[in-house]
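Reminder: ligand-aware prediction takes two inputs, not one.
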Amino acid sequence: MGKPTGFLEYERVENTVADPSARIRNFKEFRKMLPEAERMQQAARCMNCGVPFCQSALELKGRVTGCPLHNLIPEWNDEIWRGHDRFGLARLLQTNPFPEFTGRVCPALCEKACINGMQGDSVTVHENELWLIEHAFAEGWIKPLPPARRSGKSVAIIGSGPAGLACADALNRRGHSVTVYERDDAIGGLLMYGIPNMKIDKSVLRRRQELMEAEGVRFITGIEVGRDIGAEEMKQNFDAVALCTGAREARKLSAEGTDVVKDGIWYAVDFLKDVTKEVLTKQDGTEQGGTDPEVAQSGPCGMRDLVSGRQVVILGGGDTGNDCIGSVIRLGAASVRELEMMPEPPEKRRENNPWPEWPDVKKTDYGVEEATWVFGQDPRQYESTVKAVHGDDAGKLTAVTIVRVSMQNGKITEVPGTEETVPCDLLIIAAGFTGCEKELPEQFGVALTGRGRTATEAGSMQTSVPGIFTAGDMHRGPSLVVWAIAEGKACAREIDAYLMGYTEMI
Ligand SMILES: Cc1cc2nc3c(=O)[nH]c(=O)nc-3n(C[C@H](O)[C@H](O)[C@H](O)COP(=O)(O)OP(=O)(O)OC[C@H]3O[C@@H](n4cnc5c(N)ncnc54)[C@H](O)[C@@H]3O)c2cc1C
Ligand code: SF4
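Here is what comes back for the chain with flavin-adenine dinucleotide:
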């Protein structure tokens, strides 16, 4: 186990974070990892409690707490503390194929269940994980490991988000020949063209792609399956197919005036994708290769023109809304207001929400912090939504009417007389997703649930069509990167059993 008295001796210390005044000047990652000696102390805070809820993925009152990948957290914390980093790495990679993704963007379900968090501060599991994998890359320990033998079976993965990548990685290691189809010009799904560069530098995805290619995975980008290649052709050409195309059907804005006012209203993922593309293009003249994207604030730039000096309203207070705030701040918005329909959560756990349940507490993420620094006030407005949009004669957005809402018998209802019309020339809709895009599953003849997800038996990844499997947001509904990876691995296991008649994959 780790240092028995570590949690008593050392305080939780997090990675250093650049000040908002510095970090809003560019789209670079802004967290700096602790030096090795301090990281070892942080790992020593893991007491190996004997009942590691951190790796449990336990569902309590409908919410999951603990790591969905069942990462062997106490084991690798112990190895970090002892300076056995290579052993720690081996234990980490046993369950998590992409710690460099989760170490950057995972909301750390593990830390919410850490027993140190019951009375004090949980172990910095998330940052320990990132340190271990980045340390391994820096030391040159991560090398391509192609399979010794090929099975002669071929699998197509449609969609290269974390679910598709995890499925591809596991099947390729098993010896199957894997081809990943991606309609975008670069792999990664929402890790590439959703989550902004300051949260995950896009070179991280390029690095993983190069490794996977060296191990034998084939990536075909710029091809939309269902349009450029038909489902029948895919079925004929491959022994199995995995559908991992995400939950990309954005929830529509149902406000008055949206039939007339079109200019100035964006869906969040379209907006974030264009921002990332531009950041990367500006950096080195190619769309994919940027490793050190500079700010779009210098020189002419389409997205900057779109945002600079604008009064921005963002509809939706989740991760996506926060990423939009961080992006518009970097692009010079004149003001930003974020509307959230739900009530303001408490700062601390309520009594009926004890450890190790997922804590329903207020989260102040980087974008909100930055907006507060720039404008001197918190941009969040709770229990509010957009009731109407207003525009000029050319259909260009000029204002929005905001109304307060409240929860009545489980339904969101407007509070009469609370309407307020505010100037707004850029409205970004970050109100979530209603399910997957239907065309592709329809072409494959795959059944969907009433909630717009691919239908499977509980706990299975096999769709209604033999040989066609599914994973990630498309199957689970809009979720998290860590869940997409867990689903991708589970999907690979079922495909292996389908192809071979048995499986030993974990
Ligand atoms: C703005 C934003 C921020 C987020 N931030 C976080 C975060 O901080 N932490 C976190 O854990 N999660 C976050 N999430 C959620 C997370 O990104 C998703 O849960 C995860 O990416 C889902 O992975 P996936 O592989 O299922 O789908 P996706 O990542 O959506 O990938 C699906 C891929 O399929 C491709 N595709 C679709 N149709 C076709 C087709 N017909 N042919 C070929 N390719 C196709 C798409 O282009 C895409 O690349 C965020 C989501 C958003 C929108
Ligand atoms: S993947 Fe997420 S939940 Fe699992 S150990 Fe890493 S940070 Fe924690």
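Residues 67, 69, 71, 73, 96, 102, 106, 108-110, 125-126, 129, 482 surround iron/sulfur cluster (ligand 2) (CB under 6 Å). Residues 284-300 have pLDDT under 50 and may be disordered. We will return to this case in the review session.
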